[in-house]
Specification:
single chain; mainly alpha; globular
């Protein structure tokens, strides 16, 4: 039986992760590049460590996806057009790996049904994309592909949540919805309106969407362990 004094590194790092999210969302460190890099850049490494400590399987594909997302964040710190383009490519690769992880983990793969379930996500993403279309230039192509993958992830999440009562599908649906909203807020803040409120919302959605996907990965691994034991 665990005592109150038991050391739980996953819980402690999770608390630190959300403290970092709150601090980074409340305070703008853009005038202090070093602090901005350290606090903003620590979120994904923290999540990698949390997953590594919590997971019994340690899915390499997921770890590579998180590393790609980390490099994408670094690229977007600089407003130079070429770095933004590389950031959009890296983000696309990250989303593709996330799509593979989701597709491999679910049992219901009726493509027609998944396409229908993806339509609300596709319309929402398209609306955000149209708002900043004129500012993207060559960046638009990777973001269009990113949107298709994100929408299909949302469709898979919605369809499986409706027809399978499993904990992992709950986490996946929350993550998929927040992925779309997060990207939309990122678009508007980076290319359309530089409002502090949008920055705050983007950072919070960033933190929650990635954390809920981590919870999906852990839930999926635990379900597989239960099936293999039974």
């Amino acid at each position: 039986m665990k005592t109150l004094n038991s050391f739980n590194p996953v819980l402690i790092l999770t608390i630190i992760y959300f403290i970092v999210i709150v601090i980074f969302s409340m305070f703008d460190f853009s005038d202090y590049p070093s602090i901005n890099y350290i606090i903003g850049g620590s979120r994904i490494p923290l999540l990698i460590i949390i997953y590594w400590l919590h997971s019994q399987k340690r899915n390499i594909l997921y770890l590579v996806a998180l590393l790609l997302f980390f490099f994408s964040y670094i690229m977007f710190l600089d407003n130079a057009p070429e770095r933004s383009f590389y950031g959009s490519i890296t983000s696309l690769l990250y989303r593709f790996l996330i799509f593979l992880l989701v597709y491999k983990s679910v049992r219901n793969k009726n493509w027609f049904a998944l396409f229908l379930a993806s339509i609300p996500f596709l319309f929402t993403y398209s609306y955000f994309l149209l708002l900043i279309n004129e500012f993207l230039n060559a960046d638009i192509y990777p973001w269009v592909l990113n949107g298709l993958l994100t929408s299909f992830i949302g469709g898979i999440a919605l369809y499986n949540y409706l027809f399978e009562d499993e904990n992992k599908n709950f986490w996946l649906l929350i993550s998929a919805v927040l992925f779309v909203i997060q990207i939309g807020m990122f678009f508007i803040h980076k290319y359309y309106i530089e409002a502090p409120e949008l920055r705050t919302l983007t950072i919070i959605l960033f933190g929650i969407s990635n954390f809920t996907f981590y919870k999906f990965m852990i839930s999926d691994e635990e379900r597989e362990n239960e099936v293999s034991i039974s």
